[in-house]
Amino acid sequence: MTDARHRPLLAGTAVLLTTLIGLGVAQLALGRGSHPMLLAFGLTETVVSLVAGLLGLWAARRMPAGWVRRARGLFAVGCLLWSFGQGIFMAQDVLGLGLAATTWADLPFSFYYALAVVSALVHLRGRIRAHVGVRTAIDGALLGLSLFTVVWVLWLGGAVRVSDSPPGDLVVPIAYPVVDVVFLTLTLVSLLATGSSRTGVLVVLGGTAFAVADVTYSYALLHGTFETGGVADFSWIVAFACFALVSLLRPERRTGAVAPPSESWARLVPYIALLPAACASAWRLWAAIDRVVLATLLAVVVLVVLRQFLTVEDHRRLLATAEQQRGQLDTLAHVDPLTGLENRRRFGERMAGVVRSALLTGSPVVVAFVDLDRFKAVNDTLGHAAGDDLLRGVADRLRAAVRDGDCVARLGGDEFAVLVTDPAVQPGPLVERLRLALLEPFPLAGSVVTASASTGAVRGEPQRMVGDLPAGLDVDGQVAALVESLLGSADAEMYRVKRGRRVVV
């Protein structure tokens, strides 16, 4: 039994094949270029593009707001504009008014091409980084201009010179295949970024059919052989049928963020595009000055420079983001998230640096340990939120009680440490200063709480202490041993004070 999800695709494909076969049989019977066939092809292309536009708007309205909805809506409006232009073209064709290289129908056609590229950009930007989307658009333009330059030198330039149409009238139809290359490039990169899907494959098939139609149309127009009912018309019908089928398919759900596509191949695009364009331009300009070749070559060079600038800018932003993230990780690794004080790891690093410096200068080092008395009682009676407020308040008081160059850290729980490098500071006055800082009551959870702490401080001279260390230690070993000795002494002094007093909070 056929999967219900595939039924719209199968039904639409059957209608498309029936239409193409019917047009082909009718053309064989009535003759190419007959009024009935001009009307049949004109109506078919008008209707199929109109249906693609209306279905696109219907599908967009059913989608949640976002980049997919905006892209689908823009492309649907472009299809409606193409339908309007095709109606004008059909009227001119059926009435035998004579079709110039550029007519009023090309105005809505041009809007379709512009909206198609913009919708592809919007879709791509929604999936990957903005600069990648812009660079991809430039890549499409580079490939289109490079192809145009090569084709111009090998064939198109000569065809334009012998064409009956004024060169200015040929600019628009010649530009259509170039825009098709841009659209296909954007669509393919978006498909690579999001993964293969039925909708993506249908858009690529439609864009390819459109490019075939435009190339065929431009070629026939330049040689004065264009006639409705050829490959171009069949290809346009196939293209808009593919776009209509996209709107009939149920959107495929994707979970998680999509990573940007690998740019290993994309870095070569400017050079791949520039090389054939430069070779063709050099070959052409060697023989004679060709303003079209000069203009396209200049455009290619400007686009390459712009693309490289965007690449450098993107890398600069990436480096800035990495540096910012490195700073954030460094903060997380060295700062206590509750109080904003330095943590145990950072305090040990600061101690090692001060001890290393003191070994050279002979300066003393003063370390104090502060342990809140009966902190558990605050948590049990007022709640953990009040306990956290108390820890933050104690941290602020301790930080304000020392100099900016000194270090205050939270070692964990209700334990704090203070590192003082001022050689004039003595342990006794430091302990008293810290005690007075905590003397004023703390407002917590609607209550006023008086906090006290057991504080022990020691003063050590690393140059003198190093003589008591085991022999054979290198400088790093000496520093580590001295840090451990000072911290152990301060911790022991703090516990001596705690055992010798009884404090009620």
TrEMBL record:
GO terms for molecular function: diguanylate cyclase activity. InterPro entries: Biofilm_reg_signaling (IPR052155), GGDEF_dom (IPR000160), Nucleotide_cyclase (IPR029787), Rev_trsase/Diguanyl_cyclase (IPR043128). SUPFAM superfamilies: Nucleotide cyclase. Its EC number is 2.7.7.65. Pfam families: GGDEF (PF00990). The keyword Nucleotidyltransferase applies. The chain crosses the membrane at residues 36-59, 71-91, 111-128, 140-162, 174-193, 200-222, 228-248, 292-310. NCBIfam families: GGDEF. This is GGDEF domain-containing protein. It comes from Kineococcus endophyticus.
